[in-house]
Backbone:
């Protein structure tokens, strides 16, 4: 059973998922999976392509926003903003331990509000 860090009602973080964990995530009500672990970080982890294919087979959305430890920036937070704006929630993000995903959420919350579009 995966250990969830339920950050908000619509966003949670967890440690490394495998292909077989995605069915449990779907059963728990998650609709989008966000992979924050760079491909190849550990030899025993599934690739983002494998996880994406498995997620899509279950009807889940999938986004790959890799975060190298210690190198989280606004770029990744802006990518998360796009995911949250365009994909279905609730969202489950994962990395090795869940810490980078939780840090990503914090960085996302610190982003300035988007400027209004011209003509609004």
Residues:
């Amino acid at each position: 059973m995966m250990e969830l860090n339920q950050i908000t009602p619509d966003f949670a973080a967890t440690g490394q998922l495998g292909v077989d964990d995605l069915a449990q995530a779907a059963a728990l009500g998650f609709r989008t999976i966000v992979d924050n672990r760079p491909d190849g970080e550990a030899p025993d982890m599934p690739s983002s392509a494998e996880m994406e294919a498995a997620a899509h087979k279950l009807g889940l959305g999938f986004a790959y926003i890799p975060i190298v430890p210690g190198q989280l920036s606004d770029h990744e937070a802006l990518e998360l903003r796009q995911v949250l704006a365009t994909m279905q929630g609730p969202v489950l993000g994962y990395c090795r331990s869940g810490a980078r995903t939780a840090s990503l959420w914090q960085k996302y919350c610190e982003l300035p509000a988007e400027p209004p579009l011209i003509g609004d």
User: Anything to note?
Assistant: The two ends are 47 Å apart (CA to CA). The chain has four helices and five strands. The beta strands are 5-8, 11-14, 32-35, 61-64, 91-94. The CA atoms of residues 77 and 106 lie 9 Å apart.
